[in-house]
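S1.2 Input.
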Amino acid sequence: MRTSLLTALLALVFGFLGAAAWSYSGLADNRTRSYLLDNPTILEEMAMELQNAQARERLTQAGDDLYVAFPGAVMGNPDGSKVLVEFTDYNCPYCEASLADVKRLIAEDPDLKVVMREWPIFEGSDAAARMALAAGIQGKYAEFHEAMFNFGPTTPESIEAAATQAGLDMERARADAASDTVSVELAKNLSFARSLGFSGTPAWVTSENAMGGMVGYDALKEALDETDS
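S1.3 Output.
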């Protein structure tokens, strides 16, 4: 992604700036090349700005529904005014590793609402995602979410164990997990992820930014802080 952006920016710089300078001096290629060599960070800055502009455009197109959680599928303050959206998969090691960052952010900011979007892209993840949403309906999403990662890769046994540890009404949870309501939510999350250009989990959204990958606490904190400015 970054390589393609830099290639595009190089083409723009040499194409447009070079053409303009050529009309005055006939030395556009050499001057543009020298300027970029003397200021190598400009391409990185332009690439980041282009990415940010594209992200903002995609967020505008996604609309406000992106920030509205499935019933109960929330961590942190359900009524918080500062919102972080996370796309997650229970067989994704980077999602598991990012849980500590999310919990730290929640602990530091009582106004933070983390909207969880189940996006089961790995084999065997669908059943766990469905049970997570069923746990949300019972108001126990966070308990199941952490337990599921603790019990390791998703299997019928580990899903059952996580649900039991979370204290779910298992008969109701199984029915909810198989419901059309949950199926529609998973389809919606897939549509959101594709429209935002995400290629995997975890992925993150604030009101100003969309980021893919295990970006870490500092990047998430910075993105959330930008929503206050």
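S1.4 Remarks. The longest strand covers residues 82-88.
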